[in-house]
Batch of 4 targets.
Target 1
Amino acid sequence: MRRVAVLGATGSIGGSALDVIARHPADLRASVLSAGRQVDALVELCRQHRPDHAVIAAAEGYRALRDGLRGAGLDTQAHAGSEALGALAAGEACDTVVAAIVGAAGLDSTLAAARAGKRLLLANKESLVLAGELMTAAARDGGAEVVPIDSEHNAIFQCVPTAQAREGLRRIVLTASGGPFRGRSRDTLAAATPSEAVRHPKWSMGPKISVDSATLMNKGLEVIEAHHLFNLPGDRIDVLVHPQSLVHSLVEFVDGSTLAQLGLPDMRTALAVGFGWPRRMSSGVAGLDLLAHGRLDFEAPDLETFPCLRLAYAALAAGGTAPATLNAANEIAVAAFLDGRIGFLAIPSLVGDALAANPAGPADSLDALREADLAARRWTEHALPRHAA
Ligand code: NAD
Ligand code: MG
């Protein structure tokens, strides 16, 4: 029986994880659930899944959570704040952690789970982008079993699950749907609205990653994520646009052989792999009927229209704190875009300017990374008015 902490339970990945967990009552149990600020949604999930602990990140949510759990007649214990979250992720209440908080806000709890040697289903890609070296070292030292919960990285994991299986690997190819604006020219994107940007053609996801998919920053973050997970330099990580989102990624070996993982675009497959590995378990996702789909298309990414992907490669090449700066500037820019404060094209401009204005330093400590993250957030906040929509 795995006792699972679902961090970010009220989100898109959190919901998919709970769906898979509920299908396997004899093998999986949600023992800890967390959310950012949605107390009512968290209480409702507790009603359904009866965890031992519930954590609300926003401290002011504590009282409402405690009273809500009591009112529902549950003995789930209420907690609040990031320290409680880290302690529960690392503690006895769980052996498996689904890290599905969005953004750098997930760093501490993800790191705590890695250090504590948990089975770590890692969806929170921003924490790897921000602190990949430290995260990898923490997982190694803590003996954590990391299974990537990003469809591309999960695909690569399934193709080459161990370091031994990666011998003779020449390159990996991350597939990208191209997002809602694939095929559009740069000038037509100036007026793109948040509701257009979050309308992803193939995946149903949270707002931040949906905007990242529209700018191709998501693929850029994934290149950096792949670098850390599979220990490959950026020039051996390629990106291929594949609008059907059925081939989730490919690995190529020195002998000319290519392996790929295919499936319907539904994150429950990746989550079931994470819970069961090396065993397979049902996920609720149907098999792939290639005859019904008919064709698989591939094209090169358009880096002129979507410069974020290029910026991410550049940040990876620059190394040090550059990826932390890239991620922080992007988080601020995306939040401002979703708030209607800046236009769509301001996102790549702000991230590019933030990288230029905040030169990379060494990323040898968590403090150095946090400082770079904070500096880039401040810098980008200050630059927002110049890009006002
Ligand atoms: P979402 O916005 O749907 O959910 C985010 C969750 O994080 C919510 O439960 C929210 O309450 C919680 N949260 C937000 N801010 C928080 C804070 N400051 N402290 C604590 N909790 C906080 O996002 P999502 O789409 O589920 O994505 C989650 C992560 O998974 C992201 O890193 C994303 O890149 C990654 N991911 C998602 C998908 C997908 O299909 N949705 C695919 C691949 C990777
Ligand atoms: Mg992905």
Note: The mean pLDDT is 97.
Target 2
Amino acid sequence: MASLSIDHVVKNFGNVEVIKDVSLKVKDGEFVVLVGPSGCGKSTLLRLIAGLEDVTKGDIFVGDENVTRRSPAQRRIAMVFQSYALYPHMSVRKNLAFGLENLRMDRKEINDRVSRAADMLGLEKLLDRRPKALSGGQRQRVAIGRAIVREPSMFLFDEPLSNLDAKLRVQTRGEIIKLHRQLKSTMVYVTHDQVEAMTMADRIVVMHDGIMEQVGTPLELFDTPANLFVAGFIGSPK
Ligand code: ADP
Ligand code: MG
């Protein structure tokens, strides 16, 4: 696993500056939650980190390596989305193994990785099922499993729980926290849910209109919000 450093990153879409000179360091093994209203640039920032969009200015480092010009595959950063995008015609086992088969990894290594991920996520008994025979929460676990088997340098989550009902959301949230403890992996997690942010984060980044309003622990943000926007968003009395 690795640290992440975002250094003066700017992203324009046409004439519109969507990410405005953002810098952030995420420590190795840290769980950072990005919050902010819809349209403030959270997904764009994740896509820039993953290499799915090119930065307009600035640099992105994974550990000591400048990955700004590297492809998504070279960055080895896993991204988990809210829509699970599983292959409907493949078993869970096959869904987990598929990305590895494309890497021409040997069969034993693939099987070992699939077993370890299934074990970690409680999917052992579901390996021969098709996605349509799974609940929403189970599908989301398979989607996370597909990221785990690649042994990525870090995980990015883009509102992974927003398609789940309240009960499943709490349960899956617990599983992601457990996973973070087991893998000790660096994670950047986007949500617009303040409760999720306050309960999961080592540090929270509050974004607004392409900038970072404040970065701090949940307690720091609650106790000493930098401005009214942060106070309003976090729900603290200022
Ligand atoms: P969030 O995830 O916080 O809701 P996004 O990162 O999706 O916000 O979007 C930030 C802004 O960038 C929005 O105004 C959105 O319309 C714009 N945007 C995102 N992707 C594109 C794109 N591919 N082309 C043009 N504008 C985009
Ligand atoms: Mg988004």
Note: Residues 166-183 form the longest helix (18 residues).
Target 3
Amino acid sequence: MTVDKTNCPFETSLLPIPYFSSVIKLEDNYRHKGLRKKLVELLREKGIKDEQVLTAINTLPRHHFLDAAFMETAYEDKAFQIGQGQTISQPYTVAYQTELLKIEKRDKVLEIGTGSGYQACVLSLMGARVYTIERQKKLHEKTTALIEALNLPNIRQFYGDGFEGKAMFAPFDKILITAAAPEIPEKLLEQLKIGGLMVIPYGEGVNQTMLRLTKISAREIETEELDDFKFVPMLKGVAR
Ligand code: SAH
């Protein structure tokens, strides 16, 4: 089976940018549950094996993270626009990155690129303590409200530049970057604990190579080069 691994919904770019509703409706019915089950089966076929990741995706209503315009397609294995030119990652990409992190309960995880909040919630459902940073103010505010409404434990959201990390909560067991990184952010490596893992889509071209870095010692990093993906860029500074 060929695996489509795009995180950028170029094919949906003509669809309207979601309207940010101030009312958060959180209905999850049997139809949604059935569609989620099918999505999980598809992810299995595409090679995802970590049962904890699959259980979290099976549990979390992805349609809550999308505008009503995308409700019918929320459980397709596709990325979608979430406003501010940003995307909610394709479920396969979320599953792939999460599997690489080898999440254990109570892991302290720093995510760069909160976006819709979907990935942060998957990590929370797996028992991680999540610290997530978003550089787009409007997205940060919208997602903060949604995650509060979802009432999932152990997610702290920050507005800021992910290149800086969150030194006051370091060291982290795992660091996950969900935007295309033009470089390996030095400060993030510093904030990773010895023995910790960083998953990072690396490169400035059309495609990025997924890297898993293991911090062997303060100076030694082991690098695994994995598959190619397409992400929106990791940008410096913040947007208001
Ligand atoms: N994890 C998200 C998908 C993120 S798309 C989800 O589950 O929906 C990538 C996100 O990274 C975008 O929202 C973008 O604004 C954000 N981003 C890009 N550069 C960043 C930076 N330097 N710091 C924090 N967030 C950044």
Note: Helices lie at 30-45, 51-59, 91-100, 118-125, 137-150, 186-190.
Target 4
Amino acid sequence: IRIDGELRDALNAGGRGLQLWGQPIVDLATQHVVGVELLLRWRHPSGTLLGPGDFLDVAEDSDLVVGLGEWALDESCRMAADWLSRCGSSTPEVHVNVSGRQMQSGGLHRSVTEALERHGIPPGLMVLELTETQAPTLEGAVRADLDRLQQLGVRFAIDDVGTGYSSLARLTELPVDLLKVDVNFVAGIGNDPACEAVIRGILAIGAALDMAVVAEGVETPEQATWLLDKHCRLAQGFHLGRPLPEAELLAALTGAP
Ligand code: G
Ligand code: G
Ligand code: NA
């Protein structure tokens, strides 16, 4: 399949076939949904529903990832405007994934502010998730983009913490507010002391640097209990909620049947 051509067609048609599914981020102490991570899906012209792993690399290798990122920012804000109108002050934070190439394109500040303004979303509601392994060298312009967004109230999360090659240096370089513990460490809770030690270490770094920590990939109540016991209050995973398409997500957020 010529994924790149088809993806270009989809973007040129205003994002035809592209969707964002939302996965809840839960406060384990209160069970409240405090955030939603938006995850890209693509209903390919063949009918198959594709995940990011099926087409993100292709997009990342071209300028397509920038258009895809702009589409995702706008779509996230459109969805968030709907949540805001129904959930008011309990509207969850909106977590949007940003690729390294999108950061380096130089247009991140503009894309984010335009999407927020177009849909009337307060900047404090938005969290941009950056992946360690993709985080580019922070040349002046990229750094300035991130700083301006942070001054506006937008926050930043580092995804898959512990799997990148320069994680600790990154944490002091980037304007980071939130650390996301990689699923592989969470999978080791209860059976792999090394994984547990890494999670404790990330929690200690978060506490020392005043960054919140989200555990990803929580699949069992035992993992949730272990995390809460270590004062890790924020978690995401199949045990707490699977990624859902827009209508089902909305029903989950508003408690509708
Ligand atoms: O939903 P799934 O677990 O298949 O997502 C796999 C990965 O794809 C996620 O870890 C996330 O980092 C990445 N991803 C999902 N949605 C987006 C998106 O909108 N933009 C970018 N750049 N990456 C995304
Ligand atoms: O870090 P990233 O943005 O890739 O994280 C989101 C990804 O993790 C999504 O692709 C989602 O499908 C996946 N995911 C979400 N919850 C769980 C879980 O409980 N277990 C596993 N193995 N993967 C999960
Ligand atoms: Na993410």
Note: Residues 23, 39, 97, 159-160, 183, 216-219, 237-238, 243 surround guanosine-5'-monophosphate (ligand 2) (CB under 6 Å).
